[in-house]
Specification:
Length: about 180
C-alpha cells in the first residue's frame, strides 16, 4: 500500500470516526500517516480498504480501529478454510489409527502445521499404542491446546510487516545454533 493509499484509508476513518481525530494536531496526523504507511506497506490497498469497511459496517465501535484491529480483520478476510482445533485433532486421530505400521506414511500425509505439532512419525506410533481412553482425553486435550497456541502464534506473525519478519528470521537463524547447543 502506498503512502497515498494510506492517506485515503485514514481519511475514511477520519470521516467515520470524527471524534477520534478531533483533537489531533497536524504534526500528530503526519506521524500517524507515517506509522500507518510503514505498517501497511506490504498490504494490498484494496484489502485494507475492505477490512476498514468491514469494521465500519459492523458498527460496534465508537473509536477508530487501531493497526492491530485492521490487521486482524485483514487476516479474517483472507483466511482460506482455516483449520480449527477439532479438525486438527480429527486429522491427527485418523493418522494415529494407522500409526502402528504406517506411521511414516501417515505423518507425511499431515499438513506441515500438524507435522510440526506431532513432531515425528514415531510419536504417531507411540500414540497408536496407548489406551484409547487416554488417547481421546489426555492426548486429544494436549494436541488441541498446542494447536491453539501454534495457531495464535502464526496469526500474530502474519500481522507483522515484512521488514520485522526478516529481522526476526535473521535473529532466529543467528541464535539458532546457540539455542540448539544448550547455551
Amino acid at each position: 500500500m502506498t503512502r497515498e493509499d494510506t492517506a485515503m484509508i485514514l481519511k475514511v476513518l477520519k470521516t467515520e470516526y470524527r471524534h477520534s481525530f478531533k483533537d489531533m494536531s497536524t504534526a500528530e496526523m503526519a506521524d500517524m500517516l507515517n506509522l500507518w504507511a510503514e505498517m501497511f506497506a506490504d498490504d494490498d490497498a484494496r484489502l485494507v480498504g475492505a477490512a476498514v469497511k468491514a469494521i465500519i459496517v459492523a458498527g460496534d465501535r465508537e473509536h477508530a480501529p487501531n493497526i492491530g484491529t485492521i490487521k486482524e480483520q485483514l487476516r479474517k478476510l483472507t483466511a482460506t478454510d482455516e483449520m480449527d482445533e477439532a479438525e486438527a485433532w480429527g486429522r491427527i486421530r485418523k493418522a494415529i489409527s494407522n500409526g502402528i505400521y504406517g506411521s511414516k506414511e501417515e505423518f507425511e500425509k499431515l499438513p506441515p502445521v500438524l507435522q510440526k505439532l506431532v513432531g515425528s512419525p514415531s510419536q504417531l506410533r507411540d500414540w497408536a499404542m496407548i489406551d484409547t481412553d487416554e488417547l481421546q482425553t489426555v492426548v486429544a486435550s494436549n494436541v488441541q491446546r498446542a494447536f491453539r497456541t501454534v495457531q495464535a502464534r502464526e496469526r500474530e506473525a502474519a500481522k507483522l510487516p515484512a521488514d520485522v519478519k526478516k529481522t526476526v528470521e535473521a535473529l532466529t537463524q543467528h541464535f539458532a545454533p546457540e539455542l540448539s547447543d544448550g547455551r
